[in-house]
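Q: Entry one of two.
A:
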Amino acid sequence: MSATTTQLTYQDILRMFQETGLQIKETDRLIKRTDRLIKETGLQMQETRQFMQEISREMAERDKKLSKQIGALGNRLGDFVQEMVRPAVVTLFQAKGIDVREVYPNISVRRNGGGIEVDLFVVDGLQAIAIECKSHATTDDIREHLDRLRKFKDFFPRYRNLELMGAVAAMVMPDDVAKYAYRQGLYVLAQNGEMVEVRNDDAFVPKFW
């Protein structure tokens, strides 16, 4: 058995160095390319982030404008409900045996750093009804009106001797909201076609404040 020894010549060694040099150059080129891609990606990410921030600002501004528009629309609808209810309330409550004769819209007062406002105030010599008008009534609206009724005579002491009752009127009156108002002793007024009706039945007992 014989062994063959490979002798490296100067040319072989030179060729190996040349090939290694080419590999180093290729590696360096790839590193530079990778670095450039990373920088470009970083710029793209920064541009994307700036774009998203701009979109977020625009959406926030649109939401703000939309909220204002919805609020203004809600106020106008509330005014519409008030104008729809006002001509009918005297007749409606007289039919319930409450001999009211005077209707005052939008009564308000500021006293001792606080204040309240009532959309419609219906009154006679002995009894009065404070009516809150909404386009779409909610249970929160009922709670707010109950709180308003509790404070009413503190802000309007000249009505202290009247039997004060409460009512809520709405263009849209969900059944659960109507039931909640009924249980709290409030009269419930709602639209029925082109008419306004009192939804309280004969078993209803109003609460007095």
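Q: Entry two of two.
A:
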Amino acid sequence: MKPFRPEFGVFETMRTYGHDIFKLDEHLERLSRSAEIVYMELPKSLADIRSQIESEVSQYDGTFPVRIRVVATTDDVIVEIYPLKIDNDVFCGVSATCMEVMRDHPEAKAFPYDKSTDAHDEATRLGHYEALLVDDRGYVREGAYSNLFWVKDGTIFTTDRQILRGVTRQVVIDLVPVSFAEVTPEDLYDADEVFITKTTTGVVPITQIDGHVIGGNQVGPVAEKLKLHFLEFEREAE
């Protein structure tokens, strides 16, 4: 089934661990913030949207994780559910490429979302896992579908301007000390570790960017520790 992509609206992507929807309240709060940013009134209350999501998810027995996509337009809320298929090889390290792309409303998860989708599709076509979006001043902001972290000399950094503040990003910030900074592609090439976060996969280490090897092409200790934290959710759900 092709995902519903309206010309105008806001959306969220969630996942389950067992029967539990990961950080449902936080995702609903961000859905509301996205609507405010693009001056859209949600057609239902957050309580009603929550009930709709929970009703749809209750049809699954929890034996496998599902990906939940919630799309709100000015007159309706659509909940789409798909089996969540994850290639575990990504946790051993992936490649990324930097692209000069900025979304029109970077702090909102809103349609049209073509700039992120096109960047991600182009990165995939070139053999990469993710596109890292670079603004007109040459700073990397985030991934097309993810948030960005890097480690240098023992300090963990992330960006904090002109980004979508991810729910999983916030989990990492709550777990470990994180500093906020600007970063260029060249800074990332020289980093000790680089990793991205997103709801469906948790933490994914990046071991190559634009052909530059990061951290000896190995998963670094920070990403490894954080990756295991999210994998623990899966073990607890079994």
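A: Comment on entry two: The longest helix spans residues 221-237. The chain has a mean pLDDT of 95.
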